[in-house]
Every structure is written in C-alpha cells, then in structure tokens.
Amino acid sequence: MIRIGRTIKRLRIDRDISQQDLAAAADLTPSFLSLVENDRRQPSLLVIRRLAKALDVSEEVLIWEAVELPDNLADKDRRLCEMAKLIVRRLYESEYASPSADAK
C-alpha cells in the first residue's frame, strides 16, 4: 500500500516545516494539504511534484518512501526491500546534491 500523505507529513515534521508553510511553498491550501497528509485525499502527480520540490526531495524518493511493506513479509524480504529504499534515497539524494544535477 502507498501512504503518500503519511510520508509527506513525516518529511514535513522532520524538516520542521509548518503545514501552512509547506502548503504555501507547494501552492496548495492548508486544508487540502491536511486532507492529503491524513490520507483522505490522493494528490495528483502535479501536486506530488510540487510537494517534493517544497520538501527538497525527488518525486521518486517521495513515492518510494510512501510504500508500506506488508506485515506478513518474511524478514529476509523486508530487509531487502528496506535496503532498496535506502539505495533509492541515497542515489537520488546524491544526484540532487551533485553540482552536475543542475546542468542536466
């Protein structure tokens, strides 16, 4: 299952950004952002793109972080999936942090 709202909220709180400030940065209303963060509305790809930019993460990382692994997943498979998430996050973080990323 993908819980993008929960992930957006976690990233916002981790970055110490208010809901109002994130909504303004993503050109959304605070009430709509609240609905998204509480998984009561699913954001469009355009909204995901705006939120990712406002949170300073790539869209890919935002979506990948939102994937929740099933409870009944074997430990070995869970570790593999968590490692894949970490690799994706680090790959895109290094891509965004590199000076050549702006030239692309």
Structural account:
The protein has helices at residues 4-14, 19-25, 30-37, 45-55, 59-65, 75-97. By secondary structure, it is mainly alpha-helical. Helix 2 (19-25) packs across helix 3 (30-37) and helix 5 packs antiparallel against helix 6. It has six helices and no strands. It starts with a helix and ends in a 7-residue tail after the last helix. Residues 100-104 have low confidence and may be disordered. The longest helix is centred in the C-terminal third of the chain and has 23 residues, at 75-97.
Largest sheet, described in full? Answer: none
Fraction of residues in H or I helices: 55-70%
| Integer tally of domains | 1
CATH architecture annotation = Orthogonal Bundle
Radius of gyration, rounded?
A: 15 Å
Question: Can you give me a brief rundown of this structure?
Answer:
The chain has 104 residues and is an all-alpha fold. Helix content is 64%, strand content 0%. The chain has a single domain, classed as lambda repressor-like DNA-binding domains (434 Repressor (Amino-terminal Domain)), CATH 1.10.260.
Key phrases:
104 residues; 434 Repressor (Amino-terminal Domain); single chain; mainly alpha
What layout of secondary structure does this protein have?
Layout: H1 4-14, H2 19-25, H3 30-37, H4 45-55, H5 59-65, H6 75-97
Helix pairs in contact: 2-3, 5-6
